[in-house]
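Hi W., the KG4 complex you wanted:
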Amino acid sequence: MHKENVYILGIESSCDDTAAAVLHNGKVLSNIIANQSIHEAYGGVVPELASRAHQQNIVPVVDQALKTAGISKNELSAVAFTKGPGLMGSLLVGSSFAKSLAFGLDIPLIEVNHMQAHILAHFIDKEGYEKPEFPFLAMTISGGHTQIVRVDDAFDMTVIGETIDDAVGEAFDKSGKLLGLGYPAGPEIDKRAKLGDPKAYKFTKPKVKGLNFSFSGLKTAILYFIRDQSKNNPEFIAQNLNAICASIQYTIVGILMDKLKLAVQETGIKSIAIGGGVSANSGIRTALKNTEQKYGWKTYIPAFEFTTDNAAMIGIVGYLKYLKNDFAPQNTMATARLKL
Ligand code: KG4
Ligand code: ZN
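Structure:
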C-alpha cells in the first residue's frame, strides 16, 4: 500500500465534546472542537443532551476540519473514530458517522481506544516536541479516568494502577461544585490556586495500597470541612476561596505524585508522560517538571490542545494503525466500557 501521503480524519465523540481533526503523516493540519455548553446549567454531563448535541455538531465540525486542513474528503486515506470508552449515546454518533463516511469513500475504517489515544497523543509530530521512548509510564488523568499505565510499545500497554472510585477530574469538579463554582471546575480551581496559599488547609490523603487511587473520601472530607467552617462563618467560602482551591489542588497533586513515585520505584522506569484533561493543571505540570532535577526523571507534558478531549489524538492513533494495516470491519460496534 502507498504510504507516503497519509491523510487521516480523526473523530472523537466519547463524552461532551464533538471533535474532528485531519493529520498528514502524523502532523496535525486541523483540530476542531465544539464544546457543549448546554451541560453547564446541570453541573455535569447529561448523556441524552450530549448525544443530541453531537448529532447537531458532527457534520459542521468534520466539514470545518477538512476546510481548515485545506483538503477534500476524497483525499482522505482513512477515517479513525473513538470506539470507547465513553457514553454510549455519544459514541454511537461518532462511530456511525465514521462508518458511513469510510464506506461512502471506500477507504479503511480505524477504531481507536480513547484512553490509548490520550497516551499516544505524545506521538503527534510537533516541532520542538520530543516523543517519549519505550518503555515509559503514562498517567492518564481526566474526568472519567485515573490510571497509571506501563507503555512498552504503542500497542503494548498495561494498566498498573487505577482509581477504585471517582476519577481525579471528578474530584476537582465535585469540590468545585461544593464551592459554588461552575462546571467543569478544574480550570477555575487551577486559576484560583495560583492566588492562594496551598498549605492554608490540610486534607488527609486516602490510604489506598499499591498503585490504585481513591478520591471519594477527599470529596467527603472537603464537604464536611466546608460545612463546619461555614457554620462558624457564613462568609467562609467567599473570604477564602483562593486558599481553599490552592489547598485542594495541593492535596490532589500530592496524591498523584505519591503514586507516581511508587510506580517509578516498582518498575524502575523513570520516563513519565501525562495525558487527559487534568494534565492541563498547572500544579501537576510543575510538580512533574520538578522531578527532572530532583529525581532525574524524564517527563513528557503534552501541549494544552492535546490534553482535554480532542480528535488529533484519535488521528495519531489512526495513523499508527494505518501504518500497520490495522483496520476495523464495518460491523464494529461502539463499546462504552472498552478496556485499554
Ligand atoms: O480528558 P477530558 O477533557 O474529558 C474526559 O475524558 O473526562 O477531561 C476533563 C476533565 C474535567 O474534570 C476538568 O475539570 C479537568 O479535566 N480539567 C482540569 C483542568 N483542565 C481540565 N482539572 C484541573 N486543572 C485544569 N487546569
Ligand atoms: Zn478523555
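Residues 105 and 162 are 40 Å apart (CA to CA).

W.
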